Amino acid sequence: MPWDEGLVNSLVYDTPDPKTGRVLGYAKAINEALDIALEHDPGVFVLGQGVDDPGRMFGTTKDLQEKYGAARVFDTPLSEEGMMGVCTGAAMNGMRPVYMHNRPDFILLAFNQLVTHASKYHYMDNGQTTVPMVVWAAIGRGWGSGAQHSQSIQGLLLGVPGLKIVMPSTPYDAKGLMLAAIADNNPVLIFEHRWLMKKDGAVPEGLYTVPLGKGVYRRRGKDVTIVGASHTLEVALQAAGKLADEGIDAEVIDLRTLKPLDEQIIAESLKVTGRLLVVDTGWAMGGVCAEIGCLAAEKWFHYLKAPVRRVGLPDVPTPAGYTLEQFYYPDVQKISAVVREMVKK
Amino acid sequence: MTRYEYRGTGYAKWDDARTQYRSEFLTRLFRDMLRIRLIEEEIERRYNQDQMKTPIHLVIGQEATSVGSCAALRKEDLLYSSHRTHGNYLAKGGDLKAMLCEMHCRINGCAGSRGGSMHLIDKSVGMAGTSAIVGGAMPIATGAALAAQLQGLDRVSVVFLGDATTEEGVASESLNFAALKRLPVIFFCENNFYSVQSPLATRQPPREIYKWAAGYGIASVRVDGTNVLDVYEATREAVARAREGGGATFIEAPVYRFRAHGGAGDDSHTGYRDPAEREAWEKVCPVETYYQFLAKAGLIDAAQRERMRAEIMQEVFEAFDYALASPNPEEKDLYTHVYSN
Known about the structure:
The complex is a heterodimer. By secondary structure, chain A is an alpha/beta fold. Chain A is built from 13 helices and 14 strands.
């Protein structure tokens, strides 16, 4: 839809410094990761509705079927639970499926297999079986996507033992985390964001991995710690830039992986700043914001100089119209306003 | 009132079994069924002592389906199962001591006490996974078959399911995908007419389950689930088809559970089914009818059966003693194998 394509394209991202190396688009970085994985490991296969259609899942699966054949890169029936079970069974028997979904909303159809089967077998059979599979989806926003095409479901899955949850925010991480997720021996969910798909960034050639469970500082500061991941982190960085002009020095941590969570980096930062703001693409209630906020109360209370704050989604479904949507999502203004309140003397 | 009648024809058609099979094979099938029956009866006898703190789903009456189908499989073929696992596990070659340790929640159970009766899993004998969510194992077995196909192996996956599984959406999804990719998987449906206490007629329109499955474009047959040789032959054909690249097979085997859905004893008296219906099916008990068939063929007699029974009971008592003497897990064991490295 032209009105939102325009919006995505108009987002200002830092132009990558050509001196930092090779610059690649976000979707191309994922494409490169899949290509490398398929080439290096005959156990890897890629499936999902539309992975071989003209759009090629935002371009992430471009040329893969031509290169590796229709047995290893294939379109699926519209059977989300069934296919999640097929992936589980294949993973339990020596394969490494990468199951791609256009939107996380469709994964909700497969919760029985994901939550009650894939995440449990390794434990239930006392370690006899491993379930190395990747489930990938790109969160929608705008396009009039509405309540059923734009859900961020990481918060619903955070409390499921046995799963790992990854949310990259840069092309470099998208490639490195994908390769790490494929190499991991557990079910790993990767939630991308559609609004990052056209972002460019420095991406090295060849095989490298970004470790699961390690966050990274995107900006150093001493007044307040903002933690988050994915597209919301992008927004937080923009807010931090604006706040710097006002003399507020925000530290921004990209968690990269929500589960396992890098508690150490949050604690380390909080020790300095004493103020914690958690941002997320999902609902604030019961989700990533809530969990990290609770950890702060439980473990780092003595560092805190101000109440922990959350900027996620309100406890409301996503409205389809841009008219209401403008009030719904975290944006630079909302994040900045909360930070100002936090640092107010 | 007998709502669901036995519609099989017994062993009449197997008059030539002696020329077709070795006698050791024929008597082994009997011993395997008798063993499952005796193990189940001993579990049932002890269940209310409360030492097995695990929800049991006895297979008494359903021995022929497990034994007949597993006789057609190799050790490396994979068997996936539901909550009613005991017969599948034992027929696939599972270790009785490990099973009883699991049911007593001991650390040396086949799943280290994490699985219990519903999750008897032992990969070393191809007992590859179970699900206590009806239909849960169907797509997983289908995925295991996809793995075999992609890896170029001639391994076959079999998944046991009940009549109610065919009502789950994922059953349709699994059959569709298995047909689409011509996967080496066998869907073995034990139709025992009741889902817990809900009769088939309240859950499905009058139709043959195997014909429903055939609609997905895979081979589909119905066999007498009380007849171990019928089950063996149907599975053997399905296995051959799968190994030769001919794709999936659905087998419907009507059979009756002589006990309640879960726990010890029968619950027909509660009114959901007529005890007379159970009694009618007990007349075609898979263990007894097969014994009569073998005896008539001169392959076994009462004294041999008694010797078998004594041997098996000795094994069973030893296994119970072993389980009761086995160590419990410790707190630290709670935290292992949540993630794999």
